[in-house]
Give the backbone structure.
Amino acid sequence: MKRIILLLSIFLLSGCMATTKHAYEHYLDCEATTNSFKSLVSCGKMNRNKYCASVNECSTGGNRMVALFDALSEQVETGEISEAAARIKYLEVTGNLEADRRAREAAAWGALADSLNEAADSMSPTVCSTTGSTFGNTMSATTTCY
C-alpha cells in the first residue's frame, strides 16, 4: 500500500512540474541555432509567443524577461553595449532563473518526501506492549506503544 501511494505521488508531482515551460527556456532552445544575440532574442520571443498562444496565457514575470532581452537587443543594435556584454547579461539572467527553478523543484521534492514519510508513519500499525507484576494485592503495569 505504501509503495502504491509513493509511486502515485511521484507520478502526480512529476506531471505537475513538467507541464509548464518557463519563459527563459524558449530562449535556451534557440541558443544552438542562432549566430547573433539579435537572432537569439528574436527566436526566443517568437517561440514564447507561440507557446503562450497555445496555452492561452503568458506570465507577467516572463513578459518582463522578454522586455529585458528586447531592450538588450536594442542596445546592441544602437551600439550602446557590445554583443558580448549583452550575452553576459543574458547568461546571468537565464542562469539565475534556472537556479531559482531548480531550488523550487528541490523544495517541492523535499515537501513530497516529508509528506510521504508522514503518510507512511500514519499507516504503520501501533504496537503496544504491557509489562507488569503482582505482589500480594498490588499490581503494577507499564504500557509502551510505538
